[in-house]
TrEMBL record:
The keyword Transferase does not apply. One of its GO terms (biological process) is regulation of DNA-templated transcription. One of its GO terms (cellular component) is nucleus. This is YEATS domain-containing protein. It comes from Ceratodon purpureus.
Amino acid sequence: MSQAVVGKKYGIEQTEVSAIQRMQRVKIARLVDDNDKKPMVGRVKGVEVTIPIVYGSISFWLGKKAAESTHKWTTYVRSATNEDLSVLVKKVVFQLHPSFEKPTRTIEAAPFELSESGWGEFEIGITIYFHPDVGEKPLELFHHLKLYADDESIPQTTKKPVVVESYDEIVLSEPMEASFGRLRNHPVARVTGNPSSPLVLPAAGESSLDRKGRDTKDHALVQWFMKHSEAEDLNLLTTARQQVWAAAAKLKKELGSLENEVLRIKATTH
């Protein structure tokens, strides 16, 4: 059975841009009942696609002269490497506090974000909807909007925001062929494993120029985005996953040899 899994989130509050990061990935199996099982036809066996994402908020204090709204803030879902997420994500729905006008906000184009102003902290519901050819259910996340630093001794300033982000990895195990053809060479994704059978896939998708404006590399707030994964960490993770895939392929080959030997023995005893 294929599984879409997401890493266990960890939130990191930041009043300084730099912070010590720790990656952790906990696989959560998708619950599937007998009436909701997806056919394996059209899936790429032996392959796993990982898309690192970040979701969070950046809030600026508006100063002592601010009236009812003390802060302006932006909440978002972005690629951990600031690539274009719309290759995977169709839309993102943000559920704000009921006191906001139209608290349910749907963002149907990248970058997936919204900006508001207010005075209170609350939990934001985030639902990520994938393109139909991804073949996965929506992913629900939650983010606590923070306007004030935990350390009350730090004076408020209009120049440096409070940044809170969480890192996750969306993992598509045995992805659909249609979406794999689009994701396999896209910089937003990491692909591990090898297809168990030859594939006829569509040509590679857009160029970097086509993605311009939908990524967040030149975002107005990019200087405040947190660095969640250093190159060394990514290389270690990729190497480890490749070793797992190699070991699994070796075991599969050995199992096939044993099965052939059993069949040969049965044939000689009859």
